[in-house]
Amino acid sequence: MEKQPGFVSKLQIELAPEEVAKEWDAIANSFARFAKIPGYRPGKAPRAVIDKRFRKEIQEELTKKLVSKSYREAIEQKQLRVASLTNIEDVQFGEDKSMRFRATVVTAPEFDLPDYKNIAVQLTEETKVSKAEVDEALERLRDQSADFVDVPGRGLQMGDFAVLDFEGSVDNKPISEIAPQASQNLQGGKKFWLHLEADNFLPKFCEQLIEQKPDETRLVIIHVPEDFPVKELAEKKADYAVTVREIKEKILPAVDDAFAAKLVPGKSLPDLRQIIEHDIEHAKEHDAERAKESQIVKYLHEQIHFELPPALLQNETRRALAELVQRNRERGVTDEMLKEKEKELIEGAAGLAANRLKTNFILHRIAEQEKIQVAKEDMDLRIRQEAARYDISPDKMRKELQQKDALDDIAEQILLGKTLDFLKANVSVETAQEATVKEQKS
Known about the structure:
six-stranded antiparallel β-sheet, single chain, 15 helices, alpha+beta
């Protein structure tokens, strides 16, 4: 073994002739049973002929069988914590049937673990659900189920919903020319819905529409403030030609059994309240678990310090950057805007990658210490869950994961999850109220 900078180690691995010969014979005998060689009946060709005729194929089979096995034995012998196998090269066979090859690996950093049991975590609230929380959730559902009806015979009032056609200009030039990057809503639009409330949309915009009636057009003048986010419009006077097309009033449904049955067929209002209570409780439990994880990881990061392998950090940063770019594209961010924010994105990806990599190294070490392992049942369950998500059979899901070389990634996720579950099961929990009382006493 030769250690190199950056947590890299190069291994020169040799296998004894007798070990290679044993496997060679087994593979060659398999070829001999089925080989069709002119001048010989099937299965009757001499071994020397088989060895010469199928030497390349036998060596390929040998390489597949012996390299991974001997590599694992080598890292166990040298007691290496391998984080990544980066290369297998120079596989050679000697005339005496010996075998040798080189493996390049990145090893995990060395560090001491602190006491990771009974990590103190604070939870901000109980998971018990109050009546007021259920009432608030019901009110949100009621708001989402509202109807919008036409209001005849009067002009707009605060609280109404106006359906507008409008177009904005500054100094007789369309806003679309002056500020092409501004949102479409600032430039103008057709059948634009606006809830009339003080300071909604643009400063003093809604107030200037009071008493305006359908099919009436008004000139609305906006004095854009100096701190306005669209710099081309800051401190300018914007003119909007606004035509009211419709006036709508929001009508909330009654909270009764009919309302419940509309949302969940066959259920009454008490049933709906119970469903909501269960959903809120589940969400609170989920938030509590995330809060525990966050505080556990924060504690471990504060207690443990080590350098990260540069090669792995570089790879993880690339992966994190790809994730950030994809997430922003899904949110509608254009490639031009991404290019403008390239520096910030790279810095964000580097920070995310370093945090993720350090967390994984620590959790792996705890899993090793506690002998936490991924069982076949764990893998089978995860594959069944993934198969159900995509509505395919577990066998097909397993084959797809094998084709993508993703089974090791799945096993890694399960191992890290089980280790976090172990840590969460051994925390010391106190609520925010208990922490406040402790501080007051001290």
